[in-house]
Amino acid sequence: MSKLRIGQGFDAHKIIKGPKEFILGGISIDSEYEVVAHSDGDIICHAIIDALLGACKMGDIGKLAPSNEENKDISSIHLLNKVSTILLEAGYQIVNIDLTYVGEEPRLEKFKKNIEENLAKEMNISPKDISCKATTTDGLGYEGAREGISTQAIALVMKN
Fold first, then answer.
1. Is the distance from CB of 156 to CB of 4 less than 8 angstroms?
2. N or C: which end of the chain has fewer CB within 10 A?
3. Cα separations (Å) of 98 from 1, 43, 86, 111?
4. Given 3.90.1150.10, 3.40.50.10440, 3.40.50.1820, 3.30.1330.50, which CATH number is that of 3-159?
5. How high is the pLDDT of residue 3?
6. Which pLDDT score is estimated for 1?
7. Which of 16, 12, 43, 34 is nearest to 119 (CA)?
8. pLDDT grade for 66, boundaries at 50, 70 and 90
9. Alpha-carbon distance 105 to 146, whole Å?
């Protein structure tokens, strides 16, 4: 008998002017902005990690990788891979991921397919099981003012 479980994750980070690469979904994206973060600032991976851990009642990213010197600039895509392994060892299978990136900059349209493929590889699932969407806020809020970015993710997992 299988049991479906759903989890929700959210992450946001401040951004500042300064040409640097963004890391989103493990993909490097050139931008006129940079993320202010303790880790690599990959909000897509952070939101998915929290959604997966929440679905399995295993805490959150702060429990897995607290903001300390050991985790400074840690690779979020590697953390996502680690979480996927932990879930698999606990008898969970990732069914699908649905995520929404919110930000004016950088624009994700031309990167979404690569992000889906990269995330799928790290979670050992099919890219068909990941939906990466992006939106702006038409100038509203911190995302619209280009002061920050955010991502929401929903994960469906099945306990075997």
1. yes
2. N
3. 25, 14, 20, 16
4. 3.30.1330.50
5. 94
6. 56
7. 43
8. low
9. 7
